[in-house]
Amino acid sequence: MATGSIDVRVENQLVRFVCPTPLNHDTVVAEVGGQRNSGVVIKAMERPRATLVIDEEGRIVVHGTHRIEAARAAAKELLLRMGMDDSGLVAEMGPVVVSFQFDRALNLEAIPASLPSGTAEFDARLGCTTLTDTRHSLTVQMWPNGKCIVADARHPNMVAMAAVYWNGLFSDRGFFVDRI
């Protein structure tokens, strides 16, 4: 999804499906080869490519998809392999992992020094600045090359709005640099 000159890309959409009849862990292990792990059962799917986690309440959490349609197809495939009907499956949307790229490099250490206390913090270990964006209810990790990752977004459009906002603010305050 392009926003001006900033391209916002959904990397992962977390979706949870609630079945009319909760899935039984033993059945998932026996019938489709699920693997037990810390109170949940995990099943990797090839087509569609996704990782399914059956939680303690028998719900299906789908990781590794970009779209709700792909997540639903993965949940449906699991149910069909178990001989179950997929009607009545209810989707609950979780956070979205989204990335975008500013068109210029960033002076990461200047950002925390210039913004209000607690808004941004430079992490020398990771080599990035973490920005707590209360305006858009996001946490943005930014690297010197302008690459940004948001792991807690509710919708990619909110990330797009944040990217445009921070692009303008960073430009106004001179946080962009010609080279890293």
Largest sheet: 11 strands, antiparallel
User: Which CATH C-level class of the largest domain is it?
Assistant: Alpha Beta
* CATH T-level fold name of the largest domain: TATA-Binding Protein
CATH architecture of the largest domain: 2-Layer Sandwich
Question: In percent terms, what proportion of residues is strand?
Answer: 35-45%
Q: How far apart lie the N and C ends?
A: 26 Å
Please tally the helical runs, counting DSSP H or I stretches of 4 or more residues.
4
Structure report:
- The chain has helices at residues 25-32, 68-81, 110-114, 156-173, and strands at residues 2-3, 6-18, 35-37, 40-45, 50-54, 60-65, 90-101, 105-106, 120-123, 128-133, 138-142, 147-153, 176-177.
- The chain is of the alpha+beta class and 180 residues long.
- Strands 1, 2, 3, 4, 5, 6, 7, 9, 10, 11 and 12 form an 11-stranded antiparallel β-sheet that branches. Strands 8-13 form a two-stranded antiparallel ribbon.
- The radius of gyration is 20 Å and the shape is elongated.
SSE topology sketch:
Blueprint: E1 2-3, E2 6-18, H1 25-32, E3 35-37, E4 40-45, E5 50-54, E6 60-65, H2 68-81, E7 90-101, E8 105-106, H3 110-114, E9 120-123, E10 128-133, E11 138-142, E12 147-153, H4 156-173, E13 176-177
Antiparallel strand pairs: 1-2, 2-6, 2-7, 3-4, 4-5, 5-6, 7-12, 8-13, 9-10, 10-11, 11-12
